[in-house]
Amino acid sequence: MIDYPLLIFRVLVFPGFTFILLFTMFCDWVERKVEARMQNRMGPSFTGPHGILQPIADFIKMLTKEEITPCDSKRNVYKYAPILALSVLVFAMAFLPIDGSSVIPGVSFAGDLIFVMALVSVANFMLFLAGWSSTNPYSAIGAARVMTQFLGYDIPLVLLALVPAFLAKSLTISTIVASQWLPFAILAPWAFVLFIITMQAELEKDPFDVPHAESEVVAGHETEYSGGKLAFLKLARDVQIVFGAALITVLFLGGANGPVPFGFLPELWGTLWFVLKVLVIVVLSEYLTVLFARLRIDQVVRVNWQFILPLTVLSLILTLSLAYWVYPMV
Amino acid sequence: MPSNGIDILKILEDKLQNKPVQIVPGTLGTAAIITKSGSHRDVFQILVDADEKTAVVSITGIDLGENLGVYYHVRTSNALLTIQIEVPKANPTLASVNDITPSAAFHELEVTDLIGAVFEGNPSSGHFVLPDTWPEGVYPLRKDVNACEVKLDPPAAEEKSDDGKLVKIVIGPQHPALLEPEKFVVLVEGETVREVRPRIGYVHRGIEKASESRTYLQDVYLVERICGICNSCHACAFVESVEKILKLEVPPRAKYLRTIILELNRLHSHLLTLGHAGLEIGYETLFQYFWRDREPIMDITEILTGNRVISSSMTVGGVRRDLKETDIPKVKAVLSGLKKRLPFYVKVYREEPTIGLRMQKVGTLKRENALKLGVVGPVARGSGVDIDVRKDAPYEAYGEIPFKVITYDAGDTWARMNVRMDEVEESINIIEYALDHLPEGPFRVRAPRVVPAGEVVNRVEAPRGELFYYVKSNGTAFPDRVKVRTPTFANIPAFLTTAVGEPLADVPPNFVSLDPCFSCTDR
Predict the structure, then answer these.
(1) Rounded CA separation B138/B88 (Å)
(2) Which residues in chain A touch residue B274, judged by CB atoms under 8 angstroms apart?
(3) Angle A155-A159-A165 (CA atoms, 0-180°, nearest 5)?
(4) How many contacts (CB atoms, under 8 Å) link A and B?
(5) What residues contact B383, with CB distance under 8 A and at least 6 apart?
(6) Closest partner residue to A206 among B177, B282, B503, by Cβ?
(7) 3-class DSSP assignment, residue B11
(8) B326: closest CA among B443, B232, B437, B435?
(9) CB-CB: which of B279, B354, B504 is closest to A292?
(10) B52 — contact with chain A (CB < 8 Å)?
């Protein structure tokens, strides 16, 4: 028997759509504020306390702006790519146990980790399509770079996602979370560090933000977008960042598991721990962004094939051998 | 004047005995060499053979009534020569020296466009500085041109040129990598640059022409507006030229005050570029840090001159404002604060791995090419050419202040930026020395409004390199001709050659390492 009101509440309000979007906006604000303070700037300051409402204000402002569709663009693709990218990412978020269980109760199935990773690929492909369909030379180069980068870094990302799967002996996200009484980041720190670096490339953040290197390709795949479509494209990107951080939290930091179990309102405490862990990852990723200059596209590709991929394979072997011989003894 | 032992005038005299060449020492630089069209190629050949540092600084085209004067201003390692040629207006052709010294190429194109002298062997393809709609056969710097009567051509449709397999990528006039409008057509094969075609003139304001209709005092503020960043250098170069014609001695205190203002200009210009380079390679943090530390420099410029950016402090005969004794500690405090932060920035530029990846071996300009192209300033010094007007021909108080000329041998973007990084420290030292040794006395003398007839050349080391002025006076309150050669104009050829064969992504960092200023270039 399905409890429909609860299901609708979970999907639309908490921890579903509304919560994810508000949390994304909040993470965006944290990112902007942290980056600004690291760079000796103020960051958003005036909209709401400490500018906390600024991302929402930006979103609403962009919705009110004129939308221009280039004549040569593939209209349908151009129109729907941003919304599809956003929906795919939000859908992928629904599989992550934000408050201890996944958004839709019972949606979790054996092997859903593979499915979620596939959704990430689809979302990235949507961003590529968004750039490609606008038939602008800058967008085309930007889109091609999205593809080049993503094709390279998806391999180590999926391989590294297997490390927690091996340690938990399961491809199910909820099982992986449940088996982390000790976070996998402590059991396999090498994989954790590599995963963060790969995720940085996957999310196109410094030093891997070549797809939108403004001094070369203006705004990359976003160049032609304006108004509401741009708002959704930007929101999709922000959700992607939160999703990346959430994935790291789930796979390596034990998701909603807290260090101290609390008896009352486990959902609330679970969400709190989850949000805190995601924020830590967001700040860490922002720290890396602030710290480095942007690499060139050939350097980005070379870093992947020469360093990240061999190290990934090594860390996989190391984790497997440890999981077989050492960890069972602990 | 430091000398490497080459007495260029003696060599010229020896080798040019039976040629129609007249050498007049002491005018227009070290000497003026008056010659005829044709013989000037011999002079250039001798100069290039005798001295590796021979380069064309600038070419002044001047309307002399019946004739057009074409004055090649040539720099050797220890002299500044002016080779004067006159060609009839009816047939203003002379042979190009482009093949002897490639540094002449850009300047010859400019003279062709603005005054109509034709250089055989350096064909111009359309307008170079003037807009595309400017009519053929009208040359704005000739005296008989009335701006009100010039009728512009209708804009022509953009021609489709076929470049085979090469893809045309247009950088500019509007592009995020360029802060000012200028167009560079980059032909790429895959990601590799095969050719760069420049088109300058998007911010040509005709300042050289406009200065002919204003008094000398008004011109000080006009030339100051050629460039916002190195404004004091322009004003200083111009007032020095006028003082040279007037034979006016500037009081020592004014010399020191001018030096301080010029160095503050250099400081804030270098900090701006060092930060901007960070932006071009996606290093926003570096940009924010540098620009934050640039801010106090603007504040002390305000203490000194009353203005943050366009300082308007130079005037014929001295400076317009004295430095108060009580302000000296404030200036010093800011400078020592900046000096404390410098080692950190130096470390970042030298050791940060991603900066190394994006800047090292990018846009490498070899020493021999730097000499051949006649590049100036930090670009030349980054390629191991130790030219610096402050040392080579000291002006203001630079002769009395000890400082080092920074050179790096690598010749790449990284070396050019590090030259600037080290020069920041030298600049601070110069200002501190000047403040400690500030002479007592008046800070300006009265200068007559009417300037006697005469012509001079003058050079100043602007933040971007050697800034060249030629001023001719005809005895009235208005100058007859003011010619400005800005450092970026001399450095653009370096970018055109170094960008070829490198990835497209290296174009922005390579370009920004010249510290390009297009309002300077176009005037």
Answers:
(1) 16
(2) none
(3) 150
(4) 66
(5) B365, B366, B367, B369, B370, B375, B408, B409, B411, B415
(6) B282
(7) helix
(8) B435
(9) B354
(10) no
- Check pLDDT > 90 for residue B523: no
Give CA–CA dist B428/B260, Å, rounded: 9
Chain A positions in Cβ-Cβ contact with residue B289 (cut-off 8 Å): 39-40
- Tell me, what's the pLDDT at B124? 67
Q: What is the mean predicted confidence (pLDDT) over B167-183?
A: 77
The predicted-structure confidence for A202-223, as pLDDT tens digits, reads as follows: 888 878 887 777 777 777 788 8
- Euclidean distance between CA atoms A56 and B323, whole angstroms: 51
Contact between A215 and B292 using a beta-carbon 8 Å cutoff: no
Average pLDDT, chain B: 84
Instruction: Considering only residues B18 and B490, tell me which one the structure prediction assigns the higher pLDDT.
Output: B490
Parallel/antiparallel/unpaired status of strands B93-95 and B479-485: unpaired
CATH homologous superfamily of domain B8-143? NADH:ubiquinone oxidoreductase Nqo5 subunit (3.30.460.80)
Residue ranges of B 352-381 with Cβ closer than 8 A to chain A: 352, 354-355, 357-358
Contact across the interface for A293 and B504, Cβ inside 8 Å? no
Q: Which helix (H) or strand (E) holds B331?
A: helix B328-351
Chain B nearest-CA residue for A216 = B505
CB A221 within 8 A of CB A130: yes
ipTM over 0.85 threshold: no
Q: Most A CBs within 10 Å: which of B169, B354, B417, B506, as the mutation test of the A interface?
A: B354
- Nearest in space to B473 (alpha carbons), one of B215, B142, B111, B89: B215
* Residue in B with minimal Cα distance to A290: B285
The CA distance from A66 to A68, in Å, is 6
- Give burial (CB, 10 Å; 0-12/13-18/19+) of B157: exposed
The matching CATH number, chosen from 1.20.120.30, 3.40.50.620, 1.10.645.10, 3.90.1150.10, for B207-522 is: 1.10.645.10
Do B177 and A216 count as a contact with CB atoms less than 8 A apart? yes
Domains B8-143 and B207-522 share a fold: no
pTM: 0.84
Domain parsing of chain B, residue ranges: 8-143, 167-199, 207-522
Residue type, B184: F
Q: Which residues of A touch B169 (CB under 8 A)?
A: 137
B322 DSSP assignment: P
User: How far lies B90's CA from each of B35, B119, B147, B149, B286, in Å?
Assistant: 19, 14, 21, 21, 56
- How would residue B5 be classed by pLDDT, with cut points 50, 70 and 90? low
Domains in chain A: how many in total?
1
Question: Rounded to a whole number, what is the distance in angstroms from the first to the last CA of chain B?
Answer: 31
Beta-carbon separation of B177 and A298 below 8 A = no
Low-confidence ranges of chain A (pLDDT < 50): none
Helix (H, G, I), strand (E, B) or coil at B361: coil
How confident is the model at residue A263, as a pLDDT? 64
- The pLDDT-based confidence of B2 (bands split at 50, 70, 90) is very low
Tell me how far the alpha carbon of residue B473 is from its chain's centroid. Answer: 22
Average per-residue pLDDT for chain A? 84
For chain A, say whether B188 makes contact (Cβ under 8 Å).
no
Q: pLDDT value at position B159?
A: 63
State the pLDDT at residue A280.
92
Window 251-280 of B, Cβ < 8 Å to A:
278-280
Higher pLDDT: B180 or B461? It is B461
End-to-end CA distance of chain A: 42
Residue B402 touches chain A, beta carbons under 8 Å: no
Question: Domain containing A245: what range?
Answer: 4-329
- Whether B292 and A298 lie within 8 Å, measured CB to CB: no
Distance CA B272, CA A209 (A): 24
